[in-house]
């Protein structure tokens, strides 16, 4: 993600929007690259956290974690609906991203249903 940020941006948003999102001055480009680096670090940390939670055998804690993830993904979808669509450069992408957030929340809901079924069977 960090090494091919321009190509990924073109793939996700198209060439016209990608050129706008890359920044027009060297200072803007440095800020965007720093932000991308922190985003990559955040994704690694979240993946490591999910891996650690997967190793925990406490069903109550996993249920609590899954509920938090559902809340997080629904919050992101709501944020994209209210604020993401107002950015003119990203306005055409928000429905796809919001559907992705809702799909991720649904996957965590399926996990909660599985935990509930295992608990009460």
Helices and strands in order, then pairings?
Blueprint lengths: L4 H9 L1 H7 L4 H29 L4 H24 L11 H27 L1
Helix pairs in contact: 1-2, 4-5
Keywords: Membrane, Transmembrane, Transmembrane helix
- The total of helices stands at 5
Q: C-alpha Rg, in Å?
A: 18 Å
Strand content: under 5%
C-alpha termini separation: 43 Å
Task: Work out the helicity level.
Answer: over 70%
Structural class: mainly alpha
- What value does the average pLDDT take? 83
How many domains comprise the coordinates?
A: 2
Transmembrane segments: 38-57, 64-82, 94-116
InterPro entries: DUF7865 (IPR057187)
Pfam family, one: DUF7865
Keywords: Membrane, Transmembrane, Transmembrane helix
What this model shows, in words?
By secondary structure, the chain is mostly helical. The protein folds into two domains: 1-55; 56-121. It has five helices and no strands. The protein has helices at residues 5-13, 15-21, 26-54, 59-82, 94-120. Helix 4 (59-82) runs antiparallel to helix 5. The chain is elongated and about 60 Å long.
Summarize this structure as a short list of keywords or feature phrases:
mainly alpha; elongated; 121 residues; 2 domains
Quick description:
This protein has 121 residues and is mainly α.
């Amino acid at each position: 993600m960090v090494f091919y940020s321009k190509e990924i941006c073109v793939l996700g948003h198209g060439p016209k929007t990608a050129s706008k999102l890359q920044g027009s001055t060297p200072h803007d480009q440095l800020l965007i690259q720093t932000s991308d680096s922190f985003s990559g670090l955040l994704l690694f940390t979240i993946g490591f956290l999910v891996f650690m939670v997967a190793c925990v055998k406490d069903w109550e804690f996993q249920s609590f974690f899954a509920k938090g993830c559902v809340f997080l993904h629904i919050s992101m979808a709501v944020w994209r609906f209210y604020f993401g669509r107002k950015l003119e450069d990203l306005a055409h992408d928000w429905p796809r991203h919001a559907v992705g957030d809702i799909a991720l929340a649904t996957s965590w809901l399926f996990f909660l249903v599985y935990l509930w079924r295992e608990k009460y069977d």
